[in-house]
Amino acid sequence: MPLMTQIMGWFLISVGLLKVFDWKKFAENFSKYDLIAMRSNSYAYSYPLIELLIGGAFLASWNVKLVAGFLLVLMIIGVAGVGKALRDHKKVKCACLGKLGHKLNITLTKFTLIEDIIMGGMALAIILL
Questions:
Q1: Is there a contact between 49 and 42 (Cβ–Cβ < 8 Å)?
Q2: H-helix segments, 22-109
Q3: Is 93 helix (H, G, I), strand (E, B) or coil?
């Protein structure tokens, strides 16, 4: 399990930093499909910090099961929001890679949904094992 938490930690820190580099655009795009960010601008802006904190906690092996539980909740919310946006055929720019995604003009796809499901599955595995 330590390898999985290290991988997840570095991944979350990497994507969190990409989002911070273009924070305003991230929050704007994220608010178009995330169920909580649609209702809370503060949440949209704080999400990259949440990812950085979770990533740091994984790398520090700090309360790993608790942190994984929190990540699992975030991923369930993410799956619901992305799934709804895809089901409604929304053409939304994906905020998942922050500035890099904006430069590459990445749109929300099933890949985003699969990524959230995999991250949620990994969090669940950490909790159960």
A1: no
A2: 23-30, 41-59, 64-87, 98-104
A3: strand
Tell me the per-residue pLDDT of 54-108, one tens digit each, with 9 for 90 and over: 999 999 999 999 999 999 999 999 999 999 999 999 988 888 887 777 678 888 9
pLDDT single digits (tens) 7-66: 999 999 999 999 999 999 999 999 999 999 999 999 999 999 999 999 999 999 999 999
Q: Which of 34, 16, 4, 31 is nearest to 127 (CA)?
A: 4
Q: How many CA within 13 A on the CB side of residue 57?
A: 16
CA distances from 70 to 29, 33, 40, 92, 120 (A): 23, 20, 18, 26, 10
**Amino acid code (one letter) for 62:** W
Q: What are phi and psi of 107, to 5 degrees?
A: -100, 165
Alpha carbon distance 47, 97 (integer Å): 13
Measure the CA angle with vertex 85, ends 93 and 94; round to 5°.
20
Identify any residues that bridge with 107 across adjacent strands, giving them in sequence order. Answer: 93
pTM above 0.85, yes or no: yes
